[in-house]
Amino acid sequence: MSESTKTHKAHAPRKVTFAVFICSTSRYLAMQRGEESTDISGDTIETLLKAAGHTVLFRRVVSDEKTMIEHAVKSILANDGVEAAIFCGGTGITHSDITIETVSSFFEKPLPGFGEFFRRISYDKMGSGAITTRAVAGVVAGKVLFCIPGSPDAAKTAVELLISPEAGHIVKHARE
């Protein structure tokens, strides 16, 4: 790690306040019907963030549809308590997977390295199938937004290896 990176990280917040959105139409509809459903990826994200000293201000399930995801992003931008958000799910390559397209339309500054490194790590774990993996991050209004795949392993990988260690550093720069 370079000296400038060490200096930047030393002055970055160690604790970041997150919002977590699980983008799943099936879970959202089940919730609307009053059915119980498990959310292993959401539980994993929340547990790992808290274990790293971060705060999860709230966690919500939204349908993987444009207007609902746009509303979620706008709610983050209007909430001074949120510094970063994770959108988990809806990142696949089917027609209905629109989380990335919707969230990234808000980015002032995309962070292409996030998706690149996530795919590199995924390649090491799963081989050439990683080419279908979509993950992005970007900055808007001094906040950082991450979009990650919905599988529990992807959530664990993204939070442990990329999001948790770098969130404070990114938020520091996003505020400048």
What does this structure look like?
- By secondary structure, the chain is α/β, with parallel strands linked by helices.
- It has a single domain, classed as MoaB/Mog-like domain (Molybdenum Cofactor Biosythetic Enzyme, Chain A, 3-Layer(aba) Sandwich).
- The chain has 7 helices and 6 strands.
- It has a 6-stranded mixed β-sheet with strand order 2-1-3-6-5-4, sandwiched between helices.
- Strand 5 and strand 6 form a beta hairpin.
- Helix 3 packs across helix 7.
- The longest helix is centred in the last third of the chain and has 24 residues.
- It starts with a helix and ends with a helix.
- The mean pLDDT is 93.
In short:
Helix 3 (40-51) crosses helix 7 (152-175).
Topology as H/E string?
HEHHEHEHEHEEH
Total beta-strand segments: 6
- Can you tell me the number of structural domains? 1
Shape: globular
**CATH class wording:** Alpha Beta
Beta-strand proportion: 15-25%
**Rg:** 15 Å
Mean pLDDT value: 93
Assembly state: single chain
The order of strands across the largest sheet is 2-1-3-6-5-4
First-to-last CA distance: 22 Å
Estimated structural class: alpha/beta
CATH superfamily: MoaB/Mog-like domain
Count of helices?
7
Helicity level, as a percent range? 40-55%
Instruction: Note the main sheet.
Output: 6 strands, mixed
What is the CATH topology assignment?
Molybdenum Cofactor Biosythetic Enzyme, Chain A
CATH architecture: 3-Layer(aba) Sandwich
Low-pLDDT segments: none
